[in-house]
Amino acid sequence: MRLDKFLTGAMVGTRKEVVSYVQGGLVKVNGEIIKEAFAKVDNEKDIIEYNSEIIKNNKKVYYIFNKPKGCITARSDEFHTTVFDYFKQEDMKGVFHVGRLDKDTEGLLILTNDGNLNHDIMYPEKHIEKTYFFWALGSLDEEKKRILETGISIGEGETLTKPAKIRILKSGTYGEFKNQEELMTSYTMYSQHPDQSVLSGYLTISEGRKHQVKRMLKASGCYVVYLKRTAIGGLMLDENLKPGQYKSLEENEIKNLIF
């Protein structure tokens, strides 16, 4: 294994940071200072130190979590429930969330201590797709869908979004779909306006700008009232997981994240 990959996986720092540590003479292998970040090491036999502290080859953990609405994607917070508050039975030292979901967004969130997996999922050039289910106020004609799929402006000074995929499931009026649970519990202001246009569907993107799905649909004239991430790469949210529940990922599920 490469030294920089070992240190990144052991949560010593990001790839850029661990390269700096190695080049700065802060890393020893079997008592010898190594300044080549790409040096090969045996993570089972070699004694690897950073800043005079032995770095253990920690067991990697991978969790899929069905994030409920109302909690924030953070380790701790004085005022709000966080995603880590749902893992009180687990040793979460060194574990972090891969990306984040807004407070009012539900769905699939990965938590792990594998820095390399985090890099593979979040690195823009990897083009890992994330799929979201939404309910929105408004409507989309074929031209608006084409613009969403080819690239849309969502902010002054920003480049167009990368090509996306959109699939509309339902389109009509609030009066027609007011009994849909996600729509009914997320937005009731229009209960007295049954002619308000609404639609639901899936939007798949391969980048992760702040509030990107909401901003893309807003730029198309739609206002998102419910949002749930349903997939990352080839990994689908397990519908048997209720909001607030989690499970460990199997090896084949981990591979589905990036292949």
TrEMBL record:
The keyword Iron does not apply. Residues 1-59 form the RNA-binding S4 domain. It is an enzyme of class 5 (isomerase). Keywords: Isomerase, RNA-binding. This is Pseudouridine synthase. Belongs to the pseudouridine synthase RsuA family. GO terms for biological process: enzyme-directed rRNA pseudouridine synthesis. The keyword Isomerase applies. It comes from Clostridium cadaveris. Its EC number is 5.4.99.-. It holds the Pfam family PseudoU_synth_2. GO terms for molecular function: RNA binding; rRNA pseudouridine synthase activity. PANTHER family: PSEUDOURIDINE SYNTHASE, PSEUDOURIDINE SYNTHASE FAMILY PROTEIN-RELATED.
